[in-house]
Amino acid sequence: MxxxxxxxxxxxxxxEDAKNLIAVDSSKHETNxxxxxxxxxPEHKNGPINSALRFVRSxxxxxxQRVPRFYFLLFKVWxxxxxxxxxxxxCGHFLAVLESKPEKESNDEVLRNYIEKDFKLKLVLPNxxxxxxxxxxxxxxxxxxxxxxxxxxxxxxxNCTRYALSxxxxxxxxxxxxxxxxxxxxxxxxxxxxxxxxxxMTAPEQAIYSMETFAQQLQESVQKNTDQYGPLSTSAAAxxxxxxxxxxxxxxxxxxxxxxxxxxxxxxxxxxxAPVTPGGRAMVFTLGFIGxxxxxxxxxxxxxxxxxxxxxxxxxxxxxxxxxxxxxxxxWFSIVIIWILVCAGVxxxxxxxxxxxxxxxxxxxxx
Length: 367
Prior knowledge:
Order of helices and strands: HHHHHHEHHEHHHH
Distance between the termini: 68 Å
Number of strands: 2
Helix content: over 70%
Number of helices: 12
């Protein structure tokens, strides 16, 4: 009888020691009974769910007793945050699917406007130059050829207007550059990715690729129809332009959708993009609100767990002064700054390896 009581006392002492490894005081943490109640299984019932709960309890209870810090970090910090990331990926993908089509249509319209403006600008100088020859031919037909050498007159006018045409060429080139850059800025890739052979490309690189591909497709369509039906009329060319699209070369950008959803869930909200479809807006309004509530609960639990473990570690190394007062504030503020610098450095390295042109420099990444 005494031996049984001693064995029971030893088991009880082992449980208490395991609890005290991560507790600053016994009132701050769940007892073993509270943890057992979470996965409590009626002994007289069987079934797949009860069997699974028994398996979970038998598997993780020893872990909680042997490595309590790892146990609480795993199930109160890492696993909940991983589940929230999965939630952001899941919702972000379907949001990107909803918003993908309107963005493709908007980009197609921007590209059509670019082709029209570029085509008109390219016709300016040839039209001006041809107008000289046309006017001279009309003048020549109405004058006495013996009194004036029209060949010398044409040569003279060409030399005389050469500098004016050169200046006009520079002005037209400047307009073409402005139209080109405005088009790059107007194209968006918030919900789609348009790249060659699925290569990593920045937004400006995707815009350039889209413009070149769109123009090439249009040229091939015009050439094909010209070979079949002869020179195209203005209406036929306009019809081909409207039918042309960059969509076949684009796919849904699930990662961008997940990033947008994460900014909603964390209430960061950069404001650089927003859903435009009714379905996308309804999705953000409902599931986004749920995500904010869940993320707040996860962060609250995770921060309390991390603080308790770190505070206990400070007590173990006799650094209690880092747990309270101004030193505590300075310590955690320094940790946040270091974390921001490290994350910015990691992403800068990622850009350098995967992209030829960087979207952001290191200072931008820090902010």
